[in-house]
Amino acid sequence: MIAALALVFSAQAQVKSEFNPGWNLTVQGGVNYTSSNRWAIDHWHHFTSNGQVALGYKFSPVFGLRGVWTGPIAAFPTNEGKDMGTMHYLQLGADAVFDLLNIFNYNPTRFISPYAFLGAAGNYRFETTDAKGFFGPAVRAGLGFAFRLDDVAKLVIELNDNALSNKFNTLDDNEIFAADVLNWKRPFKWDDNFSALVGLQFDLSSGRTSRPIVDPGYSAPIVEAEAEAARLAAERAAAERAAAERAAAERAAAERAAAERAAAEAAARAAQQRPAAPASITESVYFDLNKSVLKADQQSKIDNLISYLRQNPTANVTITGYADKATGTASRNMTLSEQRANVVKKALTDAGISASRITTEYYGDTQQVSAVPEMNRVAVCVTK
User: Fold this and answer.
1) Each residue of 140-149: pLDDT tens digit?
2) Under CATH, which number does the domain 282-383 receive?
3) Could you report the per-residue pLDDT of 288-338, keeping only the tens digit for each?
4) Which of 117, 314, 370, 373 has the fewest CB atoms lying closer than 10 Å?
């Protein structure tokens, strides 16, 4: 029934916090008390040491399952109940565990978390000198309290009752229930093995990625309404963002168009005010006899070429080097004409004119541009 309630509450829930489904390990020690109304021995002798190890998996904030090992010592009567002995036993079982407060309000950092459990087990009593070994069923139930120490560990105190076959304590009697009042024979024969345990529980899933869990403080219709409101709000926000982006794009496009128009108008005005550049120019850069060094009085011609090429970025220039045939050898004059063309080219590239716009040629003394020897010591630069 508690499991059903937990599922109902989970179905009628609203996401509130974070929950890690996963494993936990509990190790406990304590004492147990084995009951029997026929024992004539002092009841303090019924207490023996006990321990429990449990490996559990928590499926939701409310519900989990665990496998348990319990043992190892219990008391039993000998000599027809006149004496007390001890025996070893081992109990293996499975419990359904319910967190009682999380049914109403999930809180992952709660200090005290009470829980209840209900389960079944198989119980084996090992053979002793007074009794044979015996295996029988057991029903388990109890209540516990978990005290949160940190995100991983909890201090756990647990009280439980294991209802066992009457043969657990080696007595198969016809016990009278409430002999002084009702004088009824007990319809079912069992022994109660009560345990009080304390130990630590370790959350083996700590640090894993969390998933949303539900808070049962809200009903499903509220959840659906809030989900729909959230969806509509998200749609409105998306529409507003899209509209803002469109408006920004339109403003940017208008600003670009205005800037382009202004630039075109400024260029047109500048073109109207600027004098028309010549279609091409020719400059003859002269050198001294047997020299390829630019002379100071020729620098203005270089500057004129640079200015023209800058103002006409699509124009190119061809530089042709020559040498005076009246002096020097043919080989020397060919080298000299090449050097003169390259010196002018370097002056232009040093001024920032791309080398791809410059073509150099040289003819040594195989061609003469003038009958005057001094006029053949030249690099002729023609733009186009």
Assistant:
1) 999 999 999 9
2) 3.30.1330.60
3) 999 999 999 999 999 999 999 999 999 999 999 999 999 999 999 999 999
4) 314
Write the single-letter amino acid at 231.
R
- What are the strands of the beta sheet with 282-286, ordered from one edge? 282-286, 378-383, 317-321, 358-362
Tell me, what's the pLDDT at 6? 44
pLDDT tens column, 55-69: 999 999 999 999 999
- Name the fold adopted by 2-216: Porin (2.40.160)
Torsion of CA 31, 96, 210, 106, to 10 degrees: -90
Q: Mean of the pLDDT values across residues 198-226?
A: 66
